Amino acid sequence: MARSIKPTPANTDGNSVPHLIFEPLRGEKIFLLDAMEATNTSYGYKDYDNDGDDRTKSETRNKTGGNKQWWLRSADDEIAYAVGYVNSSGHISVETVYTSEPNPTFTVGVSPAFNLNLSSILFSSVISGTAGQTGAEYKLTLLDSSMNIAVEGDIGRSGDTITIPYIINGARAGSATQVSVLILDQEYSAGNTNGANVLAYEELNVDSFSASGTGTFVLPAELSGKVCGTDYFIYLVAEDVNGQKETDYASEPVAIDIQETKKITSVQVILDAPAAGQVFDTTAECSTEGVESVSAVWMDADTQSISGCAGITGRIP
């Protein structure tokens, strides 16, 4: 959570309403919105005072009990002890905060606001509604420097199934609840400064989760034939996954590299005729780095007389 310093209104701030003045921020981490911020379109509000859902707030996390009123930090420049608030219809109003005759039935809550360092956020997830639309709810996955993950051993591959041995370290290693695979179209950068897109995200498949183990995932079919490290980038992440409306935490993503599987469809074997009295050795070997493990069958149904050198093709089914 960042300290917020805002001596003057931002260019994106709205027009506020008459007599509600801008109130600077002087390093607060949690604060109330200003009336100009409550009409800031980049925050999802309309740039004018209105009744509407864009400014309404519910009482509880479960959105029960209907919409409630919430305070702004803007004071009224004409009425003493008066400040702005948003009523249950989303309209910006003014109310005195000091009076000798308080109304016990008039209650106003708070809607805390804060700024986060984007570099501390790994990603956000929509938990209800539609992303980018009014009313959508999000949860964050924050980076946790006290939890680290590393690849421990060789990464295996059989077809599109990738096997990864891993180990989780750090003071909060015991808080990890899963290991995830994150596939991006560009290299990972803190705060996503390069605008990378998520191509795939899934939990690593393990028999029984622990801080040290081996898991698998299947490479998406749309990445077949593409090159890891060029066309897409794969990262391993240890996560502390919590409830639907609770923050998740994750280790810094660690890049992994997988090689494209090479396939052999045929092998040409050249046999030299043996000298007189020597055994005719037909043993042949083929060894290529990155090739899937396969069984080779020698096909000799079509025989031929060999004189000198002859080319014979071995086919791999």
What's the CATH architecture of the largest domain?
Answer: Sandwich
**N→C terminal distance:** 59 Å
Number of domains: 3
Number of strands: 20
Q: Enumerate the spans where pLDDT stays under 50 for 5 or more consecutive residues.
A: 60-64, 303-317
Number of helices in the DSSP assignment = 0
SSE order, as H and E? EEEEEEEEEEEEEEEEEEEE
Keywords:
317 residues; mainly beta; Immunoglobulin-like; 3 domains; seven-stranded mixed beta sheet; four-stranded antiparallel beta sheet; 20 strands; 33% strand; elongated; disordered C terminus
What's the topology here?
Layout lengths: L3 E3 L18 E4 L28 E2 L8 E2 L1 E6 L6 E5 L5 E5 L24 E8 L8 E7 L4 E4 L4 E3 L2 E9 L8 E7 L13 E6 L8 E7 L14 E8 L7 E3 L3 E3 L9 E7 L36 E7 L2
Structure in a nutshell:
The protein has no helices and 20 strands. It has 317 residues and is mainly beta. It is elongated and about 120 Å long.
Give structural notes.
- This protein has 317 residues and is mostly beta strands.
- The chain folds into three domains: 4-96, no CATH class; 121-129 and 137-256, Immunoglobulin-like (Sandwich), CATH 2.60.40.2060; 262-317, no CATH class.
- 0% of the residues lie in helices and 33% in strands.
- The chain contains no helices and 20 strands.
- It has strands at 4-6, 25-28, 57-58, 67-68, 70-75, 82-86, 92-96, 121-128, 137-143, 148-151, 156-158, 161-169, 178-184, 198-203, 212-218, 233-240, 248-250, 254-256, 266-272, 309-315.
- Strands 8, 9, 13, 14, 16, 17 and 18 form a seven-stranded mixed beta sheet that branches. Strands 10, 11, 12 and 15 form a four-stranded antiparallel beta sheet that branches.
- A hairpin with a 2-residue loop joins β11 and β12 (161-169).
